[in-house]
Amino acid sequence: MMFSLAFAWLSTVLSALVVTTYTVSFCIRYGIPTFISASYYKLKHPILFTLSMWATGGLAIPGILVGSDLHTKGFGFVAVAGLFLVGAAPRFKDKHQLPIHIVGTSLAIIGSTGWVGFNRPEVLVLWSFLVLYGLCLLIFWKRIKPKPLFVAEVIALAAFYAAIFLRLFCLGK
Questions:
Q1: Cα(90)–Cα(95) distance, integer angstroms
Q2: HEC profile of 3-48
Q3: Residue 50 CB partners (closer than 8 Å, separation 6+)
Q4: Distance in angstroms (rounded) separating the CA atoms of residues 110 and 158
Q5: pLDDT, tens digit, for every residue of 102-157?
Q6: Distance in angstroms (rounded) separating the CA atoms of residues 79 and 77
Q7: What is the DSSP string of the chain?
Q8: What are the C-alpha distances in Å from 123 to residues 72, 103, 126, 135, 156?
């Protein structure tokens, strides 16, 4: 094993803290964005978005490697590569960066969902919250300010980290 279980835990906790701190602090200061990438345009120091995406992905790698079943590490790397691309091309309103950003977000969602599906499929039940949110939007559309993409990103991140932590916990027994 390339990384110890303790290092994988620490690295994954730091990864989760980076993305959670970035997202929560942005929401407190500026309100909930349409989606996490939209936060780039409101930041005084937009490089924080790039650094957050890169740190989130890079610090998740040990947990992915240690927690993966045989032949599923690739899904985790696809997810991390997606985050790196999103961080590298944060200006999605720029016609030159938009395709890179779209590829990055697509890789991140496909890779993370694939990794979760193969390593802890029961965690995919978290996606049911997105379905419930969708139903609430249909019923209460005019009363609430919907942010479905933001909610989907948060649920995807929650599922990804829940799966990594469950895998690491089971390995530690």
A1: 12
A2: CCHHHHHHHHHHHHHHHHHHHHHHHHHHCCCCCHHHHHHHCCCCHH
A3: 87, 88, 90
A4: 15
A5: 999 999 999 999 999 999 999 988 878 777 877 777 777 666 666 778 888 888 89
A6: 5
A7: --S-HHHHHHHHHHHHHHHHHHHHHHHHHH---SSGGGGGGG-SSTHHHHHHHHHHHHHHHHHHHHHPPTT-HHHHHHHHHHHHHHHHS--TTSTTTHHHHHHHHHHHHHHHHHHHHHH-GGGGGGHHHHHHHHHHHHHHTTTS---HHHHHHHHHHHHHHHHHHHHHHHHH-
A8: 16, 25, 6, 21, 10
pLDDT tens-digit map of 54-104? 999 999 999 999 999 889 999 999 999 999 999 999 999 999 999 999 999
The residue with tokens 């309103």 is 93
* Tokens 């906790």 found at: 13
| Amino acid identity for residue 93 in this structure | K
CA distance 159 to 146: 21
Distance CA 77, CA 61 (A): 7
For residues 69 and 84, what is the distance between their CA atoms, to the nearest angstrom? Answer: 23
